[in-house]
Specification:
Blueprint: E1 6-12, H1 20-32, E2 38-44, H2 56-59, E3 63-64, E4 70-71, H3 74-82, E5 91-93, H4 94-106, H5 117-136, E6 140-145, H6 155-168, E7 173-180, E8 183-184, E9 189-190, H7 193-204, E10 211-216, H8 222-232, E11 239-243, H9 251-257, H10 260-267, H11 278-288, E12 292-300, H12 310-322, E13 325-333, H13 342-346, E14 351-354, H14 363-376, E15 380-383, H15 385-397, E16 404-406, E17 415-420, E18 435-443, H16 448-453, E19 457-464, E20 466-468, H17 473-478, E21 482-486, E22 493-497, E23 504-507, H18 522-539
Parallel strand pairs: 1-6, 1-7, 2-5, 2-6, 7-10, 10-11, 12-13, 12-14, 14-15, 15-23, 16-17
Antiparallel strand pairs: 3-4, 8-9, 17-20, 18-19, 18-21, 21-22, 22-23
Helix pairs in contact: 1-3, 1-9, 4-5, 5-6, 12-18, 14-15
């Protein structure tokens, strides 16, 4: 559909963590199912230039786009739901806004003007919003505003989106406000006052929401919709219930039962077909009716906050959906694992996954987990740091390089089997200096990698500074390690594997970023399938799923 770009803005009120991102992603899925081309972006009010140097405990995972932008984890929801690759214009922070404006001021681009929040900061934000539509040729741009209405740091963003609505016109802009409707168990009733106050706060910024989405844990009484419509000055059918669900991928279907995309298209004067959600519903049927279950141990450094591995966990579940299997994730702190207790800590797992991370904390526990998987023939997938761990473990215990390590963990190691990229050194800054974004990988024939992908050339996303040290390539391969994938010129080692195992693969890239709920990533599917095979082999027969009462 060619024509004027439509702009949808999603804000949040009352408290954070209401699922603005899921609401935005669900709407994106519904509009795409109507044949529209959708782009999504997130505007974050924190001062960091990007999340790249933030602790996973502070902000969860860093989501990497195809073009190498380090972004907010909500962009992962957008890509998984909408199944469109996002780009560096899909995430903007206060820090990046001020960085850009100050650089322009230093270059004299403002011609001596006094640089102010209005118009210079807001113009920078608006240009970013408009640019994502131009770069993607989208019919609809969905923009989520991070934080909560009333936060001081969000005010420039709210002012900017108010101005966008004025510039493009009411028929081309739509404001959706997601709020909380708490349930008071003492009196057995829902309370609308927090929503009323949140909308009033937003109206004070010059924005009147067109749709109010009500996050709740219990179904709302019919009178709630009429009351909020009256007090918040929105049409009654534009007040939509967003009930907490056991599976987040049910959200688009639940919202569409309340005619969410119908109302959005009506308000924006979009003439489209009804959404085709047949594939999505088939996926949900598999999710709700698993035939088997499997336990995967996720051995990581940041397991206390599951959002630190959000895309990894989702990719494991996607593989389960494809195989009609419930994947139970055992979150295992690598600091608790030693060579002596590995059997007792990991023994309940049908397969292991060692994910990415930075720093030397918990590394020896990961090495012990890799050794356990290798020696017990437990299916194992190492991602980024996890691949490096597999190489270090193999070098130590198979090749006899007892002090093998990474230059990241021990710069004085005599055998740095993992080290800096060839063109980097220890003096570089931490932020934005990694190998980032999508790079090609040539797959060797007759490897586990080739069996999983079924092709000879792939493109995967990277986020790392250290690499497999080619000085040790001959030593490791002579001892039995197989290099399954390299850069097209054969210089950079992208993947390793052990041929005597059903599935023991390490990859330098991050396959989790390209997994979708209805298109499981080949490597995660391979890990889950191998784990099911091992489970059935040990049991002597296929294990049926027993539904819990």
């Amino acid at each position: 559909m060619a024509g004027t770009v439509k702009y949808i803005f999603v804000t949040g009120g009352v408290v954070s963590g209401l699922g603005k991102g899921i609401t935005a992603a669900s709407l994106g899925r519904l509009l795409k199912a109507r044949g529209l081309k959708v782009a999504a972006q997130k505007l974050d009010p924190y001062i960091n230039v990007d999340p790249g140097t933030m602790s996973p405990y502070q902000h969860g995972e860093v989501y990497v786009t195809e073009d190498g932008a380090e972004t907010d984890l909500d962009l992962g929801h957008y890509e998984r739901f909408i199944d469109e690759d996002l780009n560096r214009y899909s995430n903007l922070t206060t820090g990046k806004v001020y960085w850009n404006v100050l650089n322009k001021e230093r270059r004299g681009e403002y011609l001596g003007s006094t640089v102010q929040v209005i118009p210079h900061i807001t113009d920078e934000i608006k240009s970013f919003i408009y640019r994502v539509g131009e770069k993607t040729d989208a019919d609809v741009v969905i923009t989520e505003i991070g934080g909560t209405t009333g936060d001081i740091e969000s005010q420039p963003f709210l002012e900017a989106i108010r101005q966008v609505g004025l510039e493009v016109g009411q028929e081309n802009s739509l404001y959706i406000h997601v709020t909380l409707v708490p349930y008071i168990r003492g009196s057995n009733e829902h309370k609308t006052k927090p929503t009323q106050h949140s909308v009033k706060e937003l109206q004070g910024m010059g924005i009147s929401p067109d749709i109010v989405v009500l996050r709740c844990d219990e179904p709302l009484e019919p009178g709630i919709f009429k009351k909020i419509s009256l007090f918040c000055n929105v049409k009654e059918d534009c007040v939509i219930e967003n009930l907490t669900l056991p599976v987040l991928y049910e959200a688009p279907i639940m919202l569409e039962k309340h005619h969410f995309s119908d109302i959005v298209c009506r308000e924006l004067h979009l003439n489209t077909e009804k959404p085709d959600l047949s594939e999505w519903n088939e996926m949900l049927h598999r999710i709700r009716n698993p035939r088997r279950k499997v336990t995967i141990g996720l051995v990581g450094k940041y397991v206390q906050l599951h959002d630190a591995y959000l895309s990894v966990a989702e990719a494991l579940r996607h593989a389960g959906y494809a195989l009609s299997t419930r994947v139970d994730i055992e979150w295992i702190d690598s600091e608790t694992i030693t060579g002596e207790n590995a059997e007792s800590v990991l023994g309940m797992c049908d397969g292991l996954l060692i994910p990415g991370g930075f720093g030397n904390r918990g590394i020896e526990g990961m090495i012990a987990a890799a050794a356990y998987a290798r020696t017990r023939h437990v299916p194992c997938l190492g991602i980024c740091l996890g691949m490096q761990i597999a190489v270090i473990e193999f070098a130590r215990h198979v090749c006899g390089l007892e002090r093998a390590n990474s230059g990241e963990f021990n710069p004085e190691s005599p055998d740095k089997v993992i080290d800096f990229l060839p063109d980097q050194n220890g003096e570089i800054d931490m932020g934005g200096t990694l190998r980032l974004g999508s790079f090609p990988c040539k797959i060797a024939p007759d490897t586990c990698l080739a069996r999983c992908y079924g092709k000879t050339m792939i493109h995967e996303r990277h986020r790392h500074r250290y690499e497999f040290n080619n000085d040790y390539r001959e030593v490791l391969t002579r001892a039995g390690m197989v290099i399954g994938g390299t850069s097209p010129d054969g210089h950079i080692v992208e993947t390793v594997e052990l041929p005597d195992q059903d599935f023991f693969v390490g990859v330098q890239f991050h396959p989790e970023f390209k997994s979708r709920p209805n298109k499981a990533h080949p490597l995660f599917r391979g890990l889950v399938q191998a784990s099911l095979n091992r489970q059935e082999k040990e049991a002597g027969a296929p294990l049926a799923f027993e539904r819990e009462n």
